[in-house]
Write a structure and sequence with these properties.
This protein has about 170 residues and is mainly alpha-helical. Helix content is about 70%, strand content about 5%. The protein has seven helices and three strands.
């Protein structure tokens, strides 16, 4: 279900990394004569002004907006899940990300580009820092695990080669 949530101009500025004039221009375009898609509690140039989508058909019929809302929900859900998992890992009750989970976490991070203003809508700044640290630490641990596995395979191959060479030398001596 898609839920409308008001945002301040300051939040829009921080999350979108746009300038105040760019935001005001965009808001004005959606509030132009005969277009009442947004309601503002004040001027678009005021950081405390609250913005809300007011025209239900905009939400229902604009497929791109629906996709954006769905992507936002998915990114939020992933952030909250990673925050929960990072917290459990810190307590010793969870594990690091590995394999597909690590690939998905890295993909989420690259696509969602979670910044503090965006994440603050859903989790604390400490939670965001924990999530990013959890993903980074999981990546380092995965690289170490893969490297250790490769070293172990090479050691087994060398041991088998040494054994084969030793047996061949014994056969030749007999």
């Amino acid at each position: 279900r898609r839920v409308r949530r008001a945002a301040t101009v300051a939040e829009l500025e921080a999350v979108t990394k746009s300038t105040l004039p760019e935001i005001a221009k965009t808001l004005d375009a959606f509030r132009a004569e005969e277009r009442h898609f947004l309601t503002l509690s004040g001027r678009p140039s005021d950081l405390e002004t609250r913005v809300i989508i007011t025209h239900e058909s905009l939400i229902r019929r604009w497929e791109t907006l629906q996709r954006w809302v769905d992507e936002e929900r998915d990114a939020r859900d992933a952030l909250c899940d990673y925050a929960r998992r990072a917290h459990q890992w810190k307590l010793g009750a969870g594990t690091r990300l590995t394999g597909v989970d690590l690939v998905l976490a890295r993909r989420w991070r690259a696509n969602a580009k979670p910044n503090p203003p965006w994440a603050a809508r859903y989790v604390t700044q400490a939670d965001l820092a924990s999530v990013l640290s959890y993903i980074d630490e999981s990546g380092r641990a995965e690289r170490w695990r893969v490297w250790s596995l490769r070293v172990g395979i090479v050691a087994v191959i060398l041991a088998l080669a040494t054994l084969a060479l030793t047996l061949r030398v014994k056969v030749v001596q007999e």
